[in-house]
Amino acid sequence: APPVVAVVGRPNVGKSTLVNRLIGRRAAVVQDTPGVTRDRVSYDALWNGRQFVVVDTGGWAPDAKGMAAQIAEQAELAISAADAVVFVVDTNVGILDHDEAVVRVLRRSKKPVLLVANKVDDQRAEAEAAAMWNLGLGEPHPVSALTGRGSGDLLDAILDIL
Ligand code: GDP
Ligand code: MG
């Protein structure tokens, strides 16, 4: 079976937009209202002749559990079923508590992780992306899921860790 890459991160960082970039079509649902992706959804991807599966995650139910706990739980489920993980942060907003909740899950897992600094729509945002080194998850990959900036390099990097 082809290897599986899970795309994780707190709501609204651009996971579904990035998934659409990675699979080269519009399939993952993107909305300005965070939390629209209710379950994990898998898509087939092909890059440089190599097949892999991309899993979009997100969403929460308004129940007793706190949002951070639900985000962490979602990430945990997706990571355990994946061969590699793409962790997405929003370069414009920076790191919030809900990002840290995912980072804690990532540290516990032994899976290879690629850090994506998303929403780097132009050259100016590159400096902010470099600040993501502070997460201790290795080199941040600056990407604009919206425009496609950096997505080819990211796909190359994903194939390198699979
Ligand atoms: P998710 O909740 O993490 O799946 O995030 P979505 O993919 O649904 O995107 C949330 C919002 O961020 C939407 O309004 C997207 O259009 C926007 N967005 C996603 N990627 C980018 C990007 O690279 N640049 C900018 N400026 N906006 C983005
Ligand atoms: Mg989504």
From TrEMBL:
Residues 3-162 form the EngA-type G domain. Signal peptide: none annotated. It comes from the Bacteria. Transmembrane segments: none annotated. GTP 1 binds at residues 9-16, 56-60, 118-121. Belongs to the TRAFAC class TrmE-Era-EngA-EngB-Septin-like GTPase superfamily. EngA (Der) GTPase family. GTPase that plays an essential role in the late steps of ribosome biogenesis. Associates with the 50S ribosomal subunit. This is GTPase Der. It comes from Microlunatus elymi. The chain holds residues 22 to 183 of 459 of the full protein.
